[in-house]
Amino acid sequence: MFTRTAKIASRVGLHARPAAVFAKAAEDEGIEITISFDGDDADAASILEVMSLGAMHGDEVTLSTEDEGGEAALERLATLLETDLEG
């Protein structure tokens, strides 16, 4: 299993546009990726599940996958989360 933590940079957290951009990027990776926050897990490719986590600006989330090529995918997604997607 591969894991990577990331700090949410978007001012509104993982809500609306940032969640949509992130979920689309996770879906485009073509592998199963989980995002976890505060003891809850979500399918990273599901905008509704990502938003339901309630992760806000400055919160730390964990990305994980068991799929081949997962380490590079998690790195790309973590970089995305660490970018202000509202700007």
Task: Please sum up the structure shown.
This is Phosphocarrier protein HPr. With 87 residues, the protein is an alpha+beta fold.
Q: What topology does this entry show?
A:
Elements: E1 2-7, H1 16-28, E2 34-37, E3 40-43, H2 47-52, E4 60-65, H3 70-81
Antiparallel strand pairs: 1-4, 2-3, 2-4
Pattern of helices and strands:
EHEEHEH
Ranges with pLDDT <50 over ≥5 residues?
A: none
- Widest sheet, order of strands: 1-4-2-3
Number of separate structural domains: 1
Question: What overall geometry do the principal axes of the alpha carbons give?
Answer: globular
Main beta sheet: 4 strands, antiparallel
Q: How many beta strands in the DSSP annotation?
A: 4
Class per helix and strand makeup: alpha+beta
Radius of gyration, rounded?
11 Å
What is the CATH superfamily classification?
HPr-like
What CATH calls the topology is Histidine-containing Protein, Chain: A
Calculate the mean pLDDT score and round it: 96
Query: What's the level 1 CATH class?
Result: Alpha Beta
Name the beta content range.
15-25%
Specify the helix fraction band: 25-40%
* Cα end-to-end separation: 33 Å
* Total helical elements: 3
The CATH architecture assignment turns out to be 2-Layer Sandwich
Describe this structure in words.
The protein is α+β, with helices and mostly antiparallel strands and 87 residues long. It has one domain: HPr-like (Histidine-containing Protein, Chain: A). The protein is built from 3 helices and 4 strands. Strands 1-4-2-3 form a 4-stranded antiparallel beta sheet. Strand 2 and strand 3 form a beta hairpin. The longest helix is centred in the first third of the chain and has 13 residues. The mean pLDDT is 96.
